[in-house]
Design a protein that fits this description.
214 residues, mainly alpha, Four Helix Bundle (Hemerythrin (Met), subunit A), globular
Length: 214
């Protein structure tokens, strides 16, 4: 986690070319604190899930299509920090304080949803796969949407451009959402094929990401 925060520091403050970027400092404090709390919980209560989460990124995926999706998502993720840095430096856009606060709250909400997902499902691997003996989880956030971790991640990513006071970074957010949806649909095909009971779960929980919408 320290390595990720260090990368984000560079991605934000090198393009900004200034440390006088309070929105970035607040965001990083919230991001690092939330990530540290989640990691601490997994270390104490579900070390196997933590190991599954560490095997992430394009090279960890087994299928070529997922490698492409993860590469696209990784580049969009980095862009969500580089673009705000340049935006702050050159003043491309202005975000009112209330929207910055809403962005920070969305980041916290996204982390909370992801945490609830981890607590409910020990098989939330960072790559698309099924494990021997893996059950279908239909409780907790899974009773509301079929992919609560992605739902939390989207809310977190939605909040990031606002928290960093950059409207231009919403372009990177849109690319990230497209990558998540592409990945989600591919994952559903695999789970329906390889995870017993998942097809019935799909019939009982109608929505993938947003209740009453999709």
């Amino acid at each position: 986690m320290a390595k990720l925060v260090g990368v984000l520091l560079l991605c934000l403050f090198l393009p900004a070319w200034s440390l006088r970027y309070w929105q970035a400092w607040v965001f990083l404090a919230l991001f690092a604190g939330s990530a540290a709390a989640t990691t601490w919980y997994l270390q104490r209560h579900d070390i196997e899930l933590l190991r599954r989460r560490l095997a992430a990124g394009p090279h960890a995926e087994k299928e070529r299509r997922q490698q492409v999706i993860q590469l696209l998502a990784s580049e969009a993720f980095i862009g969500m920090f580089v673009v705000p840095g340049f935006d702050h430096r050159f003043g491309w856009s202005t975000v009112p304080l209330p929207l910055v606060v809403i962005g920070d709250l969305l980041v916290i909400l996204g982390f909370w949803i992801v945490f609830l997902t981890f607590r409910e499902n020990s098989y939330t691997s960072a790559i698309i796969e099924t494990a021997e003996g893996q059950p279908v989880i239909s409780t907790g956030p899974y009773a509301i949407v079929r992919h609560p971790m992605y739902a939390g991640a989207i809310r977190m990513r939605m909040g990031t451009p606002l928290a960093l006071a950059s409207l231009w970074a919403l372009v990177c957010f849109a690319i990230m959402v497209a990558a998540i949806v592409w990945r989600l649909l591919d994952e559903e095909r695999l789970l329906s094929r390889d995870l017993p009971g998942y097809a019935a779960y799909r019939s009982s929980v109608m929505y993938r990401l947003v209740p009453f919408i999709w």
